Amino acid sequence: MATETQPVPQQPVPPQPQPGDARNERGGERGGDRGGNSRGGPRGPRRNRNEQREEGGFKETVVAINRVAKVVKGGKRFSFSAIIVVGDGAGSVGFGLGKAKDVQAAIMKGNASARKAIIKFAMVGDTIPHEIVAKFGSGVVWMKPAAPGTGVIAGGGVRAVLEAAGIKNVLTKSLGSSNHFNTVGATFEALKQLRTKEDIAKLRGK
Fold first, then answer.
1. pLDDT one-digit tens code per residue, 105-142
2. For 16, which DSSP code?
3. Are 64 and 86 in contact (CB under 8 A)?
4. 104 CA to centre of own chain
5. The pTM is what?
């Protein structure tokens, strides 16, 4: 009597990880897919972009973009706020805050707000006329004139305002809050308080 040979069932072969698979490269089997949608929405743009462009003779600088999430029934609603600084590089500067549902609309609103708040301040050459300390909210900024070749010793929102205003040599220090809106506002207030010796002479009637 002939013996029948039973076929051996084939075992399924697990798929091999591909070099381009980002999940396998960072250990996706352990953590699973951790894309932005699993956390409630896209992460949005990075902060402190400091992007610059010129429009109508004014240089526009995006100091910071913040994403705000409002939790409502059924999920989250995201909106963006942008701090914009505009200046002509010759002693005129302004800043504004724009809020909208998308980034580009927030930047446009901030640009329009900044152009409405432009001020003209006193300069001596390419620096400020005297030392000044100003406060805005919880932000405090100290500024002092500097010799030619020093450069703009500043960071964050302070640098954005001074570069847009056309100041090339100055020493600064942030003494209060590191919040971009407060530092930009304090720098703006300091520039508004600057006076030349001719301005002081006029006030004294000389």
1. 999 999 999 999 999 998 988 899 999 999 999 999 99
2. P
3. no
4. 14
5. 0.70
